[in-house]
Amino acid sequence: VSITGSSAAPKLTFNRAGEGSADIYFNSTGTGLIVDSGAPIQLDYTTSLRILKAGSETARFTANGGLAFGDSSSSTSVLTIKSDSNSPISFEKSSNRQNYLEFKKTSGNLTQPWLIGVGTDATGTEFRVSNGSTTALTIASGSGNATFGGNISGSSTSTGSFGQGYFDKKIGIG
Asked: How far, in Å, CA of 31 to CA of 47, rounded?
């Protein structure tokens, strides 16, 4: 371990015999730290905590408590994922584990979480939308068949009918 540079711009260097070195130092504005072991990673905390690799921002924690990936201008208090690829979010399921997103309200009525994701059935993976122990929708992996666990309705007060049929003069079959 060695410290080099001036008191205004110190650099801490870690050397590992036969394996190279890594430096920790302030960025040029003094608002962040750089960890450099060949491809620098920078932590900059001017208005947010930014994580940079080789000078390009990869993620940031915003001053409002948000987290952003791929959006260097984000200042929101939510999760922001921005991508030019077809699938900016990917969840991979290993073994027989469930893989889902949970939407949960923590106060008032309706505090039961809604889950959207994948589970397993006898033939493999199936897509499910559920509210606790009640599964509202299941789509089977092999056939793509959809199974609904409740009523399908055209409106909140419907009894299951979807309207009226009008026929001009006659109906023909066959």
From this structure: 10
| 27, 70, 98, 138 from 104: Cα distances, Å | 41, 26, 17, 20
Would you say 75 and 62 are in contact if contact means Cβ atoms under 8 Å apart? yes
What CA–CA distance (Å, rounded) separates 121 from 141?
9
Residue from 134, 132, 138, 103 nearest 118 by CA: 138
DSSP 3-state of 61: strand
User: For the chain, how big is the Rg over CA atoms in Å?
Assistant: 28
Question: What are 168's strand-pairing partners?
Answer: none
Q: What's the per-residue H, E or C state across 65-81?
A: CCEEECCCCCCCCCEEE
For the chain, how far is it from start to end, CA to CA, in angstroms?
90
How far apart are alpha carbons 132 and 91 in whole angstroms? 21
Is 101:117 a contact under the CB 8 Å cutoff?
yes
- The pLDDT tens digits along the chain (174 residues) read 677 777 667 888 888 777 778 888 877 776 777 788 777 666 666 677 778 777 788 888 887 888 888 888 888 778 888 877 776 677 776 666 677 888 877 777 766 788 888 876 656 678 888 887 788 888 888 788 898 887 776 555 555 555 566 666 666 665
